[in-house]
Write a structure and sequence with these properties.
The chain contains 24 helices and 14 strands. With 873 residues, the chain is an alpha+beta fold. The strands form four sheets. Strands 2-1-3-9-10 form a five-stranded mixed beta sheet, covered by helices on one side. Strands 5-4-14-13-12 form a five-stranded antiparallel beta sheet, sandwiched between helices. Strands 6-7 form a two-stranded antiparallel sheet. Strand 13 and strand 14 form a beta hairpin. The longest helix has 25 residues.
Length: 873
């Protein structure tokens, strides 16, 4: 405590003492309006007011933390004084004592000192002006720079994360799905099967001008630019937002990623994935690989995916045959496929023309096309839209047959074929295919009448084979696969009838067989041709087949028995040869051993087996090829995505000797020249053939050949609702359909058209010994004269002959029971409809006591069970 007396009105303050309370007032003064708002202890002098005014703006500055902290630091020392010493009695840092303060300002001394000190310190700093108005909403450069740096880090981090997390996915199913394309031998299209109309082609199959047209339309910098173009993406987005039209900023790589790996949905997620996959793809694949994939996955309209399908959809040709103008139009379609299809939407031609010119202009600009060549180009009008060549018409039958062929030979199974992408060139020849279809249409389809119930059941199947190569050159499966889906050319459920009889002759000559009395069998061998005559030498159940119309011929040589298709003769001949040998010969010639109802019994000669039209054509082709059997083939070549699929070499073997085959041919020539197959003479070529009729006239056949072609035609009856086989009685307005009728007429018309313009070839035959003369001890009943009524070889008088019934061929003048015509054209004039009442055939396999070989049976056989059914011819 100082000994010095304190001055009046001044009291030393402790450095730690608080400011005087707000209630301290100067005695004897009044409080004005301004005093109420003034902080306690603050001076009210003009100098103090000025100091407060100077401080105000700084106090309301832009809130920077440094200024606020400085104010706090300045204020704290102003209220604290050092303890008085001898050198500094007043503790304010100088040696001179302060002047005493008048008593009237005692209450404000501390505040005044504080303000003075604060004001003094602030005067040494540059003050910042206050941010007002719109400037307060604009961030400072420091804030902006920080935000940009932060955003950059986020973008970089997002790109790195996206690149690491997004992998190249497997291709989507729609992008890999392709059609299998089926072609004629010359490369023209038959059909396509599959849900997606696409056929991938390698880049080298696409002409360079066509590729450049696509680049001019979609991405001219494709080979030099990166996989993505951010500026183009921003530009496209801006144009879309500003209403300049929805645009795509995607490169070809991005579009390929969308087509092949992702989908067409317009979502942000898909766009993000597309971005990152495109970057990776650009690093992993070459530009050529990406362009090839793009051209094979892009949509061109008309349900065409890929440029190969588009070339067929708009110009009916392979892409390798597309020219520059057509390629530029196809490239134009990528921008708006439906809008630029000028054949479908003629009103859009101006827009399509403008786009086409844009593409060509781009090619000129990039120096891919000269201005002179550009000036010579005219707009290539596309073809009108046609249904995709799918499975309608004959296409479906051919596809079905090819699939069965490939699966049966282990070339491609059904599952592998279903993956698509196979280009299958068949052996079918377009001209011959069209000729066969035209013959069926003219001879049968055009004659059908919806008012006739029987006509609703008519079905037709046909196959034509080259004997020398085994190639199937034509196939008719039915009226339309989408209406009748069963292929009549390959089905195995109709009896082949008398078309099986030539195999008995071939077996007889091949095995040097003899009759029951030891005479060699050849075309002149004489048999008894009486209807229902029991076969001799058979140890099984009694079998006595009925001839057609129950006609009996008496003694008759094999040659004429073939012309008349006499069941009794061929059943006996089958027993003489041996039914097992007959069956083996048929299999060697080309009939599958798994054919239903192919069994070694006397009835085998009459054709109860249900081989297909295709099977029979192959077997007859072997006869035409002098007994050399080449397995029939339906496929010339197969590729998948440009890679060849290996095919087995067709097997060839000598099924029967040339003498056996040629001798059979010599007999079958007589069937065409003057027998039941005379309608086949319309081919205008040397021909051999045989007619046939299934049981109850459910099918009628003609199987024949020239040296160049072997063709089989069958007309079948089938209920369209139940699928049951039905007789052909009344069909085409005729009493019955025979093998010598519509089937032979189709054969003749087709063969003439198929071989038109080619030299006429005759048969070069090498016959077995004795084929031109009867065996020793036998007489030719056609040349003998005998008055002995007991002579079995005596020709019957017209009055006692039951008729001259033939298998659909012309009927000569006969005795009782003969009929004029057979419902088809003959060599002598038009034929009339048959008035024959259909008979009910006998049951098959009826048990009977075995027969003991005996002399030729009487003309009228004993009554009783006849064994297996007598098949009509």
């Amino acid at each position: 405590m100082s000994d010095e007396p304190q001055q009046q009105g001044w009291t030393p303050r402790d450095a730690t003492a608080a400011d005087p309370p707000d209630t301290d007032k100067r005695p004897g003064t009044e409080t004005g309006p301004d005093d109420t708002d003034r902080p306690p202890g603050e001076d009210d002098t003009p100098e103090a007011d000025e100091a407060r005014a100077d401080d105000g703006p700084r106090a309301a500055d832009d809130g920077e933390s440094g200024d606020a902290q400085e104010g706090a630091d300045d204020e704290a020392p102003a209220t604290e004084k050092a303890a008085p010493t001898d050198e500094d009695p007043d503790g304010d840092g100088d040696e001179e004592p302060d002047e005493p303060v008048p008593s009237t300002h005692t209450a404000h001394t501390g505040a005044t000192a504080t303000a003075a000190v604060k004001t003094g310190k602030k005067k040494g700093r540059a003050s910042r002006p206050k941010r007002t108005g719109w400037r307060r909403a604009v961030p400072t450069w420091r804030v902006t720079l920080g935000a940009l740096l932060f955003a950059s880090l986020l973008v970089i981090g997002g790109l790195v994360t996206g690149y690491l997390l997004v992998d190249i996915p497997p291709a989507n199913a729609a992008a890999t799905a392709q059609t299998n394309v089926y072609l004629y031998e010359d490369g023209t299209h038959i059909a396509r099967d599959g849900d997606v109309n696409r056929e991938n082609v390698s880049l080298d199959k696409i002409p360079l001008p066509v590729r450049r047209a696509v680049l001019a339309a979609e991405d001219r910098d494709f080979y030099s630019a990166p996989a993505i173009d951010p500026m183009a993406m921003v530009r496209a987005a801006w144009n879309t937002v500003t209403g300049k039209g929805k645009q795509s900023g995607s490169t070809i790589t991005q579009q390929y990623v969308k087509n092949y790996y992702l989908g067409q949905e317009q979502t942000i997620t898909r766009k993000v994935k597309e971005f990152f996959i495109a970057i990776k793809l650009g690093r992993n694949q070459s530009k050529d690989e990406i362009l090839e994939g793009y051209l094979n996955t892009s949509y061109f309209g008309r349900n065409a995916y890929g440029i190969q399908a588009a070339a067929h959809a708009y110009y009916g040709k392979d892409v390798q045959d597309v020219d520059i103008a057509q390629g530029a139009y196809l490239a134009s379609l990528l921008n708006a496929p439906n809008a630029y299809d000028v054949a479908t939407y003629p009103e859009n031609k101006q827009a399509a023309l403008a786009r086409w010119k844009y593409v060509l202009g781009g090619m000129v600009k990039e120096k891919w096309l000269s201005s002179e060549d550009r000036a010579d180009l005219t707009f290539p009008m596309p073809e009108r839209a046609k249904p995709v060549s799918g499975l309608s018409g004959q296409g479906g039958y051919i596809v079905q047959a090819v699939k069965e062929y490939l699966a049966a030979r282990g070339i491609l199974d059904e599952k592998t074929l279903a993956t698509g992408g196979h280009r299958i060139t068949t052996t079918l020849q377009r001209g011959k295919q069209d000729a066969l279809s035209a013959a069926v249409d003219e001879q049968v389809i055009s004659e059908l009448d919806s008012e006739r119930d029987a006509d609703r059941n008519v079905r037709v199947g046909g196959v034509s084979v080259e004997p020398a190569t085994g190639k199937v050159v034509a196939m008719y499966g039915g009226i339309d696969y989408t209406k009748q889906f069963v292929n009549n050319a390959t089905r195995r459920d109709y009896q082949v009838g008398s078309t099986f009889k030539p195999f008995v002759i071939a077996a007889a000559v091949e095995n040097r067989s003899t009759t029951q009395d030891g005479h060699p069998i050849n075309p002149n061998t004489v048999y008894v041709g009486d209807s229902k005559r029991p076969v001799q030498g058979w140890t099984g159940a009694r079998y006595a087949p009925e001839n057609e119309d129950d006609v009996s011929y008496g003694p008759i040589p094999v040659r004429r028995a073939a012309d008349e298709s006499v069941n009794a003769v061929f059943a006996q001949m089958a027993v003489d040869v041996g039914p097992s040998r007959v069956m083996d010969t048929a299999i060697a010639l080309g009939i599958p051993k798994t054919t239903p109802d192919l069994s070694p019994s006397p009835s085998i000669a009459l054709g109860p087996a249900t081989a297909s039209v295709l099977d029979m054509a192959g077997a007859y082709a072997t006869l035409a090829n002098h007994g050399e059997h080449t397995e029939h083939t339906l496929v010339e070549s197969i590729t998948k995505n440009g890679t060849e699929v290996p095919l087995p070499e067709p097997s060839t073997e000598q099924a029967v000797s040339r003498e056996a085959a040629d001798t059979t041919t010599a007999v079958l020539r007589g069937v065409v020249d003057g027998g039941t197959g005379s309608a086949a003479q319309s081919a205008g070529r040397p021909a051999a053939g045989k007619t046939g009729t299934a049981e109850e006239d459910r099918a009628a056949w003609f199987a024949g050949y020239t040296p160049e072609l072997a063709t089989v035609v069958a007309v079948m009856g089938q209920n369209p609702k139940t699928g049951a086989q039905t007789p052909l009685y009344g069909a085409l307005g005729m009493g019955r359909i025979n093998g010598g009728g519509a089937p032979a007429q189709i054969w003749g018309q087709y063969t003439a058209a198929a071989l038109e313009g080619t030299p006429v070839q005759g048969f070069d035959l090498r016959l077995a010994p004795g084929s031109n003369e009867p065996p020793p001890g036998q007489r030719d009943p056609e040349n003998q004269e005998s008055g002995n009524p007991e002579d079995p070889y005596r020709p019957r008088d017209p009055g006692e002959q039951a008729g001259n019934g033939r298998d659909g061929g012309p009927y000569g003048v006969g005795g009782a029971g003969s009929r004029p015509g057979a419902g088809q054209a003959t060599g002598t004039g038009p034929a009339g409809p048959s008035g024959r009442t259909p008979r009910t055939p006998t049951g098959a396999g009826s048990p009977a006591a075995p027969l003991t070989p005996a002399a030729p049976a009487p003309a009228t056989p004993p009554t009783g069970p006849t064994g297996p059914a007598a098949r009509p011819h």
